[in-house]
Specification:
Layout (H helix, E strand, L loop, with lengths): L7 H12 L4 H8 L3 H11 L1 E3 L39 H4 L31 E3 L2 H15 L7 H16 L4 H7 L8 H9 L11 H5 L22 H10 L5 E8 L6 E7 L4 E7 L4 H15 L1 H7 L2 E4 L8 H5 L9 E4 L9 H13 L11 H12 L11 H9 L1 H6 L19
Parallel strand pairs: 3-6, 6-7
Antiparallel strand pairs: 1-2, 3-4, 4-5
Helix pairs in contact: 1-2, 1-5, 2-3, 11-12
């Protein structure tokens, strides 16, 4: 069969036929594909939904019919309502076990066309052709670019090559004298260095510095896309469900003018506190360097308390998660997870907080004149700003309450008096 890939029109036909209640074999025959291909397509690209049922309490606990718990809400001692009939029950009950519809484990694996769907309160799965085709395109793009190397291979390559480059050795010399370590072409290693995947930089190689760079379109260098296996947003939710006391830190990038300096932002979700670090370029090594400095500054124990879980997007600068997760001794120090593509709502807190940064550094403005002291000054003003979501407290107040004022000083952040807060471009001349 020549055309192995499903088209957008074929995916639309699949969605329509599923809503009509057609079987997978009927649909497969209609679009000229094997039914096993159709099964894999639906399982890979179905979309989860928290949609409830009109007029019914959304209780997804497997014990909802027999449970007789009362007064789980400690702030409502006079409530006589059975907890199973309360929409907050699943969130606060320690015995909650989610009930999963058995129909989702057999064909057609989705709720499209299910007769019970309008009155079902369980978590649902739908096949939506627009979402499915967009997901397919994203994966196709990712597999056709980037670095064809695994996380472990990249770490090993970096440990060997970068120290020798900084000694003045050429890549040709290194690979010639270490033929048993890596089966890589010389040009490939040059690309990894230029793409910021290694600790060594172009500036560490004198010949590169003397050559005038060719005009070319910038290329995003990514580690093997398999790095996201086990680190998806669904994996993140399952991880937090098993360890609900762990705090999440959302991570993102704020870009100035293209090709210039950028900011790495870290938002502590529970208290709204944000850190920002100036980076010379938007690559994975610069992110690794920031976490290296934080590891040294905080120490092992404090670092693990501050950054137990990192949630970020799919940018190329975050494509080397293992280098962030492991300390210099190779021990696990944090966990990295990725949002779904184009799902900014999954880390909405940090996206909203970027609005304060843009009040001082508008989109399109250059960050090249900034120093880290300027960035710390900006974040001091941002973190001192009172928020209704924090009961009119500032992120500075809550962070100092949780971790102490000494840590604020170490991070370069100070509390700005309320009437002295300035969130205008003139804050940083």
């Amino acid at each position: 069969m020549k055309n192995k890939h499903l088209t957008d029109l074929e995916r639309l036909e699949i969605e329509h036929a599923l809503r009509q209640g057609a079987s997978l074999k009927q649909i497969a025959k209609k679009i000229g594909k094997h039914h096993s291909t159709l099964s894999r397509e639906i399982l890979a690209r179905r979309t989860a939904s928290d949609k409830g049922a009109y007029g019914r309490i959304t209780n997804r606990c497997i014990l909802r019919a027999t449970c007789d718990r009362h007064q789980l809400c400690l702030d409502k001692p006079d409530c006589v309502r059975r907890c199973a009939s309360c929409p907050h029950c699943n969130r606060i009950c320690p015995d909650f076990q989610e009930d999963v519809c058995a129909k989702l484990s057999r064909a057609p694996f989705v709720c499209n066309g299910c007769k019970d769907e309008p009155r079902c309160v369980l978590r649902k799965q739908y096949y939506i052709h627009k979402t499915a085709h967009r997901n397919y395109r994203d994966i196709l793009v990712q597999t056709r670019r980037g670095a064809n190397v695994t996380e472990n291979e990249l770490l090993g390559l970096d440990a060997l090559v970068s120290p020798l480059i900084k000694k003045g050795q050429s890549i040709h010399h290194i690979l010639t004298n270490n033929p048993d370590r890596f089966d890589l072409h010389e040009k490939t290693v040059y690309r990894y260095v230029a793409g910021g995947l290694l600790a060594a930089k172009n500036g560490d190689m004198p010949r590169i510095c003397m050559l005038k760079p060719r005009a070319r379109k910038p290329v995003e260098h990514k580690v093997d896309t398999k790095c996201r296996i086990g680190r998806t947003y669904q994996d993140y939710q399952a991880f937090l469900a098993a360890a609900p006391d762990l705090a999440t830190v959302e991570m993102d990038t704020v870009v100035g003018r293209r090709g210039g300096k950028v900011l790495l932002t870290l938002q502590f979700v529970r208290c709204g506190f944000m850190l920002a670090f100036l980076r010379d370029r938007n690559d994975s090594q610069s992110v690794i360097d920031v976490f290296g400095r934080l590891w040294v500054l905080a120490g092992a124990d404090l670092f693990q308390r501050l950054f137990p879980v990192l949630l970020t997007d799919n940018g190329s600068e975050f494509s080397n998660p293992k280098a962030l997760e492991l300390d210099p001794a190779g021990q696990l120090r944090t966990r990295v997870f990725y949002c779904d593509p184009r799902a900014t709502n999954q880390k909405s807190r940090i996206e909203r907080n970027h609005e304060f940064i843009r009040m001082v550094l508008p989109k399109g403005s250059s960050f090249d004149h900034l120093s880290q002291a300027d960035v710390d000054k900006l974040m001091s003003h941002v973190n001192s700003y009172s928020r209704p979501s924090l009961q009119d407290k500032s992120p500075c107040d809550l962070f100092a309450f949780l971790h102490g004022t000494d840590l604020l000083d170490h991070l370069g952040i100070r509390k700005i008096p309320a009437n002295e807060i300035l969130l205008k471009p003139r804050l940083i001349p």
